[in-house]
Amino acid sequence: MSRSRYRYCPLCREELGEEMRGGRMRLACPRTGCGFVHWDNPIPVVAAIVERDERVVLVRSRGWPDSWYALVTGFLEPDETPEAAVLREVEEEIGIPAELGEYLGAYPFERLNQIIFAYHVRGGPGPIRLCEEELTDYKEVPIAKLKPWPRGTGPALREWLAARGYHPPTVELGEEVPDGRAD
Ligand SMILES: [Zn+2]
């Protein structure tokens, strides 16, 4: 497991212990009257299959090995719907407007304790401009040449391709996954 774990109570700074709560062992605050429990619920993430001109935009996040490219992803802002978040993330991360396509499904990504809500979006015209804080590269891959990867956003891409009659092999991204980074 590479998930980050709390050690101290974020409410009262007591050292956390383990307790059976809701059918699982959880980190919980032992101090009487505090009541903090670290439920460790999955974090929602949105992902976009950005299609334009028969190609899909894949991006490489800062810190990833050179061979890794995956879908545009991001976190939701407070009060934001997943549909709004995915369009905002596309515009922020690759600098093109996007139009919502179909919702593809929810994909658990256990290693990062995320639940990924994946969408197909149609990318608008214009040059791609990367958000350099987050991304280091992109490529636009013809749909027929896409090869999905086994975890993270890969299963959403695999199913989207299958629905269009493409059944390429699933290919590992190549190198050991560093902790704390999505693929
Ligand atoms: Zn506490």
3D structure, described in words:
The protein is mainly beta. It has 2 domains: 1-40, no CATH class; 43-163, Nucleoside Triphosphate Pyrophosphohydrolase, CATH 3.90.79. Helices cover 13% and strands 34% of the residues. The longest helix is centred in the middle third of the chain and has 13 residues, at 82-94. It is elongated and about 60 Å long. Zinc ion (ZN) binds next to loops.
Q: Top keywords for this entry?
A:
single chain; 183 residues; mainly beta; 2 domains; six-stranded mixed beta sheet; three-stranded antiparallel beta sheet; 2 helices; disordered C terminus; binds zinc ion
Secondary-structure map with pairings?
Blueprint: E1 17-21, E2 24-28, E3 37-38, E4 43-52, E5 55-61, E6 72-75, H1 82-94, E7 98-109, E8 114-123, E9 135-142, H2 154-163
Parallel strand pairs: 4-8
Antiparallel strand pairs: 1-2, 2-3, 4-5, 4-6, 5-9, 7-8
Bound molecules: zinc ion.
The site of zinc ion has 8 residues, from loops.
